[in-house]
Amino acid sequence: MDWLYVAVLAVFAALAHIVANLLSFNRRGLAAVLAAVVFAAIFVFWTYYPHGVPLPTSIAVKKPTVTTVVPAAPTAPQKPSNPVTDITPPSGTSR
């Protein structure tokens, strides 16, 4: 879990709550709707607006490393160490 990202989102939620309470004159239903809208606006701005600030989301996402695999030269198959080659059950055994 990226705790820095969680902390940033908690600050956004608190800021959205404060702004919504100021705009709704302490009416709870209107404040809840406004807080959701303000939080969504802040979150979209923070996540998608190119402002050049290193974001917690860009720190947590690591670029995949590219590795090249060189195939090994084919070798002759090894002979099994068990000399038994017949897989039929021995006679006289019952199931």
Q: What's the short story on this structure?
A:
The chain is an all-alpha fold and 95 residues long. Helices cover 51% and strands 0% of the residues.
Describe the protein.
The chain is 51% helix and 0% strand. The protein has 95 residues and is an all-alpha fold. The chain has a domain at 13-60. Helix 1 (3-24) packs across helix 2. The longest helix is centred in the N-terminal third of the chain and has 22 residues, at 3-24.
Helix content: 40-55%
Mean pLDDT: 79
How many extended strands? 0
State the oligomer.
single chain
- The number of helical segments is 3
User: What portion of the residues fall into strands of 2 or more residues?
Assistant: under 5%
| Cα-atom radius of gyration | 32 Å
* SSE ordering: HHH
Overall body shape: elongated
Q: How many strands, what sense, and barrel or not for the largest sheet?
A: none
- Distance, first to last CA: 56 Å
Q: Kindly name the structural category.
A: mainly alpha
**Unreliable segments of 5+ consecutive residues:** none
